[in-house]
Structure prediction request, 451 residues.
Amino acid sequence: MKKYSLITLIGLLVFSLIACQKYLDVQSNYGLAVPKSLDDLQKLLDDSRIMNLKTPSFGEASSDDYYLKQSIYDALIDYGQKTYLWQNYTMNYPNDWASAYNTVYNSNLVLDRIKKIEKTKENTAQWNAIYASAMFYRASQYLALLWTYSKAYSEENGTDFGIVLRNSSDFNERSHRSSIAECYAKVIADFKECEDLLPEKVSHVMRPNKYAAYGMLARTYLPMHRYDSAHYYADLGLKYNGELLDFNNLAEVNVSAAYPFLIFNKETIFYSELLASSNLTNTRALTDTLLYRSYDDNDLRKSAYFKVWDDGTTTFKGSYTGSAKYFSGIASDELYLIRAECNVRTGRVEQGLKDLNHLLGYRYKTGTFDAYDIKGQKEALELILNERRKELLYRGMRWMDIKRLNAKGQHIVIQRNVNGQLFSLEPNANAYALPLPEDIVRLTGILQNPK
Prediction:
């Protein structure tokens, strides 16, 4: 048996080495980097394991859409428990921060190398697409890192700690934390450069197009409370893809299936996933009871999103990944909700409810949805925010939503019950900016978030 196991292992290693040759052998040292052609650079960007599947998940693991049984909590390692309770933890590699900056490094490597390739009449379209794609991936990770490791954006705290903006793949470049305002300005500038250079159509939704950039701009402006701009870009994104899945159509959504949604479904504008988290596995993370009860019985999301266990608890199964992994990309349902919220916040209540009613019409059993007709701005906004939470579960949105809403006086308090003790996270607390990895702080000298 040992002999056969050894032969099998050797075979697997050989196969892996051969497979790896299909990708570029990019050296960790900038000066030894191999990629030289546009096709080489495109292959780097097409490495989905690094470029599409690394969205930080610690914020989602800190949010209020789920809770853990005591036995599950007890089995977590230290940083999993402390993440759950918003306590400072010692986190070293591997982690959200390192994974996200791996994507940033690849993006910067492409941006550095493409400058050495002449743009010609024949290669302009490819050159522009590769350059802008690298900008898109980098800006997407910057935004997710901001949502995780910094406080909510406001005019008052714009000078507070943001994240590290790396503009080169050269490891010798010193790291420092830019301000929140500087980071958001960089993200917006990069996405705006993308929108002019990315193609309208791409071969796969794992590659960004210009409408993905519009979607990311809408997503960026929303927590900055710049509702006219968020509306503008959500509207542009929906002009490309305003399609919605019909939850009544078995060919599109099988609500009773273990995983009801197909990967790369028609709502998907750009595909990415959250990093795996021990707190958020779909057999551990139990849905907040009040949240689950807020779904109407005729709302098909109640069946499509949740598995009900024998003890009455529920877990989430409704990811657009078509699996136990969690979707973090841009989809048309999110853009409808952004446009609806921005319309209401800017006084266009009727238009905002029109978007919401359009979305919910595809979510309820045929003939059971009564369209909302609300005149008051405050009531309409509360409705849309509740539906946003119910629609966009486990997409990496809730942590930032809590922060941005509390920054505007919403007063959302998150609570956990562990061993009979109640832990609370008050609005705008320092803990909303999660602690940076200790090894990064030691190696670079960048400043840690305050406790």
